[in-house]
Specification:
Oligomer: single chain
Largest sheet: 8 strands, mixed
Shape: flat
Mean pLDDT: 87
């Protein structure tokens, strides 16, 4: 079995996905790369919020092939399975996959052991499934069992690196993404400290505690789930000055921890604030508004209108050049999938590939009728105008929101005034917390 060498499909996919990732997110930042042991067996233990995007963003943070475990459902067709195996994907089986799921998983665990024995790297999502919420769910023990089995046959210690994937939005394009690698955990050392017991659960329990604590440190964890809306509003809906992703994450972590303590000590006050938040959120949902609009009595529309007029020609150019590949994922796949958690993954992977393919075809056609590398400048204009047209779209939606807000304030002055007071009180609370 090949572990260190790059396969051609993996190398090509790596390059395309890396560029797609850079264009899909507004800002991508990595911290803690120095925590990844070099030339050692490494298992990345990450929270799972964004289906296929999660392994992609971890796998493209460094120039070394990685393997990752995924649900066996996608391996059902032999032709598809062959492609997925060439991309370093390994299936993990569940009870519903058949009575022999334990034997199948044993074979996959053996593959993982072989990879780690060659100082390879594996990505595992210990939660077992993906969920867009910012909370760490109960971890499955499979990661510890793989580490324990591998430790018995590898020369080097097995290291587990907790990873926190922190998205500003798990569904929309141009979101921010911080990939945070935590302090590496020496699984072999933990196993050695439990030599006096033969019970597997007692051996792996200390490692699972370390993994859980490590992951929790690198991500946002809205621990008190009944107050999830409270956490989400304070951390993601309150408007703050734009800053670096590192500073933003530190602020979010600090407020997240303080909110948990506050809720534990002041549950009645927290319930009152959540009621105010739900009232604001209900109006926002009904009127297509954003909570930050309530920070002002009235939103100015002059500058947005001027910006929309001036930017329209170039935005139209970008829209025309990327219309077909932009709508194909929705028409071909997304409209047939009920689980909206796959939206961003399909848009990023399929949409990115289609966009690149269409631009190449269009540039080739241009090259047939022009000279002096006009095709290159055309291709470049497609990339830039696509970015501009999407930003223009976001700008238009913000203008529409401001317009709707002014209409709501005019039609419901008393209601608007009350919600403005709520918002300002909530904003003052979180900044002073």
């Amino acid at each position: 079995m090949r572990v260190k060498n790059w396969t051609l499909p993996y190398a090509i996919t790596y390059i395309l996905v890396w560029f797609t990732k850079q264009g899909y997110f507004r800002r991508v930042y990595k911290q803690g790369l120095e925590n990844i042991p070099k030339n050692k067996p490494v298992i990345f233990a990450a929270n799972h919020q964004n289906s296929l995007i999660d392994p992609i963003v971890i796998g493209t943070t460094h120039m070394k092939p990685v393997f990752f475990l995924t649900k066996s459902d996608v391996f059902r067709k032999p032709a598809v399975a062959k492609i997925l195996f060439s991309l370093n994907m390994l299936p993990i089986y569940r009870e519903r996959d058949g009575a022999d799921f334990i034997e199948k998983n044993k074979a996959i665990f053996d593959r993982c052991t072989e990879i780690l024995s060659s100082n390879g790297r594996i990505i595992i999502f210990p939660e077992g499934s993906h969920n867009t919420e910012n909370r760490l769910r109960q971890l499955k023990k499979g990661i510890a069992r793989i580490a324990l089995q591998s430790d018995a046959v590898t020369k080097d210690d097995i290291w587990i690196v907790p990873v926190g994937l922190n998205y500003s939005n798990t569904r929309n394009k141009t979101a921010d993404l911080l990939v945070s690698f935590g302090k590496a955990i020496n699984a072999s050392e933990i196993f050695q400290s439990a030599d006096d017991t033969k019970n597997e659960n007692e051996i792996i329990a200390p490692l699972m505690i370390n993994i859980e604590n490590g992951m929790r440190t690198e991500m946002l964890d809205y621990a008190n789930h009944p107050f999830y809306k409270l956490y989400d509003f304070f951390i993601s809906k309150i408007k703050r000055p734009r800053t670096t992703l590192i500073k933003k994450f530190k602020w979010n972590k600090d407020k997240n921890d303080k909110l948990t303590s506050f809720i534990d000590l002041n549950s009645q006050k927290a319930e009152q604030m959540q009621a105010s938040i739900e009232e604001i959120s209900k109006v926002c949902e009904d009127k297509d508004l954003r909570p930050y609009l309530f920070d002002k009595n009235k939103q100015s529309l002059i500058r947005p209108v001027i910006g929309l007029i001036l930017g329209f020609p170039f935005a139209l150019y970008g829209f025309i050049n990327s219309y077909i590949p932009a709508i194909l994922p929705e028409k071909l796949i997304l409209s047939k999938i009920k689980d909206r958690q796959y939206d961003s993954s399909i848009n990023m992977v399929l949409g990115g590939f289609l966009m690149f393919f269409f631009w190449c075809v269009q540039s080739f056609v241009v090259s047939l009728f022009t000279d002096h590398y006009i095709w290159f400048w055309y291709f470049l204009s497609c990339v830039i105008s696509r970015w501009f047209s999407y930003e223009y779209h976001i700008f238009f939606l913000r203008f529409k929101g401001k317009k709707n807000y002014n209409g709501f304030v005019k039609a419901n002055p008393d209601k608007a005034s009350k919600l403005q007071i709520y918002y300002k009180e909530l904003k003052q609370f979180i900044f002073n917390l």
